[in-house]
Amino acid sequence: MGADTAVASPQKSAGADPDGSGTARTKGGARKKRDDRKAAWLFLAPALIGFALFYAYPTLRGIHYSLTDYNLLTDPSFTGVDNYRRLIGDEQFINALKVTGYFVVLNIGTQTVLGLLLATLMHRLTRSVALRAILLVPWLVPNVTVGLLWMWMLDANLGFVNHVLEALGLGTTGFFTSPTWAMPTVAGVNTWAYSGYTALLLYAGMLQIPHHLYESASLDGAGEWRMFTKITLPLLRPVLALVLVVSLIGSFQIFDTVAVTTKGGPVSATRVIYFYIYEQAFTNFRMGYASAVAVVLAVILGVLTAVQMRLLRASRSDLA
Amino acid sequence: MTPNPTPTLVPASRTAPGTPPRKGARRRISPGRIAAWTLLGVALFVTVFPFYWMIRTALTPAADLYSDSTGLVPDHPTMINFLRVLGLTSQAEAQAAGGSGAHLDFLRYLLNSVVYSGLIAVLQTLFCAMAGYAFARLRFPGRDAVFGVLIAALMVPPIFTVLPNFVLVKNLGWLNTFAGMVAPSVLMTPFAVFFLRQFFLSIPRDVEEAATLDGVGSWGIFWRIVMPMSRGPLITIALTTTVWSWKDYLWPLLTGREEETRVLTVALGIFQQQSPNAQPDWTGLMAGSALSVLPVLVLLVVLGRRLVESLNFTGIK
Questions:
Q1: Measured distance CA(A127)–CA(A121) in Å, rounded
Q2: Matching SUPFAM superfamilies, A to Z (chain A) (predicted)?
């Protein structure tokens, strides 16, 4: 890259190009626009290759697979919209959608309320980093570990929780094996794993709220509940909305916990959509059909992500 | 962001007992404060206790599981479960201690996990920083369009690319190699490019301009000025990437099941499947689980503040 000391200053003062390094400017001639083309492609090469190979190509490929019959062994054969037509009549698919919806409602509902409660408590009581670090541990641990840990805690015969329930005279429950309790249990386990993380995100948002608001409210004799509803909640709304959408997107993609604990059972009670895709693709080797289900999930998540990006822009401008 | 304590502004009389706790009532013990701290205490207990129970179980001999499953401390504490999942005992010893006889080598899985998440964290951060810098500072035709397309990849959910990427890696003959396992994530992730670009945009240009005048090219500026100035955000990205890849399950399960590349999460899943359903090898499973938590705790102790505070601005992921 050349060192054009002399040319750099007049351009800078013109304010036309505030960019840092000056290369190949002379090439542009009269336009006097810097062009870092060569350097740029060098900087971008890995990311662009990664994008093309592992994002763009597979996206197109996935849409293509969804229009084929493909078992991984022979070449995919084009079948048009057959897979989608079959989807509509597939009770397992409808069940997967329902079950996933049930999970998302249970998980997001409890996780958001708990996260908000924990964040508010921390915000009003303490700035302790150690406390926050401890609350973060369940999120730092792999979901597989979390699943195993709670399978053991909730084991019908030897699990600690059932010992406690028995001691209280409530009798034991096969949490992961009862069709009624399996899904609430999976949701509860995920809530346990992610509430601390949610709380920390919300807490970070609460720190943005000017502290003097609480002081003047306190001077006016407002209680904690009033401060929460009149100051915290309204001013937290952009962050809260963002956190909610991010958790929603994550929640729709529940897989690990189910794969470890219930494997979709009992009787499809926890056969969530991500797990259904996995089974179709890698147990039944129906790659084409699995891709069609993935397209549906992608559409749902795409809408949510679009909302997220909107909110992101909104929250940025609000807090700036 | 530290609060501004102004206790002097509040006359003591205003904080009469019985009123709800308020900022002015600092350090005063009120029922509301006690209730709030109790709630936090309960949350901490619920968070920590399962981990305690995990370790307690891992230290219990399998034979004692039925007779000794309620006490807070095992009657006959033992390290045998850790030793056998680490593959440090003979097969006969492992079976005598409750193992199913399947070979276990958690030392290797632990190492594989470190390699897997280490490779992803370091390379992804580097390549995304390079891309972010190009988008933030370099001028070239089509810059904003290319950036827009890259960011649009945020809308593509992982499950959608998992199937075709699996086929791709399989066709490349990369199944059960680290190359195949990390390939889709090392080169870029839209979020990191976006996040680092935002940060680079916020760096004042003066220093870079001065360096340009001194004849330093963009590569030199990137390495000698921009990267050192961006240590915070770079560590943030690397750290969150480490955590996410440490937790990865589906992708390594599909592409790296074999012993040589098996990471901890996959190993735990397989271990559980091999363990008989009627009588799971809980002491071994909890020992393996504890080993997957250990590095996380190390990370937290060494980088706790950084990790906790990094959540402040990566909340988008």
A1: 10
A2: MalF N-terminal region-like, MetI-like
Subunit contact B187:A46, Cβ cutoff 8 A: yes
CATH code of the region B113-256: 1.10.3720.10
Q: Which of A125, A134, A256 sits opposite B48 (nearest CB)?
A: A134
pTM: 0.85
Collapsing DSSP to helix, strand or coil, A285 comes out as coil
- Domain extent listing, chain A: 85-319
What are the tens digits of pLDDT across the range B127-142?
999 999 999 999 899 9
- Residue A17 contacts B where some CB pair is shorter than 8 Å: yes
Cβ atoms of residues B104 and B85 within 8 Å? yes
Which residue's structure tokens are 């904003």?
B144
Alpha-carbon span B9 to A218, nearest angstrom: 11
Contact yes or no for B51 and A149 at CB 8 A: yes
**E-only strand ranges, chain A:** 68-69, 77-78
Q: Is A289 helix (H, G, I), strand (E, B) or coil?
A: helix
Contact A3 B213 (CB under 8 A): yes
Positive or negative CA dihedral for B88, B93, B96, B97?
negative
Distance from the B68 Cα atom to the nearest Cα atom in chain A, whole angstroms: 10
Tell me B300's DSSP state.
H
- The whole-angstrom separation of Cα A19 and Cα A191 is 46
Q: What is the pLDDT of residues A154-210, one digit of tens each?
A: 998 888 998 889 889 888 888 999 999 999 999 999 999 999 999 999 999 999 899
Closest by Cβ to B187, choosing from A1, A47, A305:
A47
What residues of chain A, 136 to 175, have a C-beta less than 8 Å from chain B? 136-138, 140-145, 148-153, 155, 158, 160, 163
Pairs of CB atoms within 8 A across A/B: 357
**Domain spans of chain B?**
31-78, 113-256
Distance, CA of A140 to chain centre: 15
Q: Min CA distance, B89 vs chain A (Å)?
A: 23
CATH number for the domain formed by residue range(s) A85-319: 1.10.3720.10
Q: What is the ipTM of this complex?
A: 0.85
Contacts of A224 in chain B (CB under 8 A): 20-22, 32
Tokens representing A66 are 């969804």
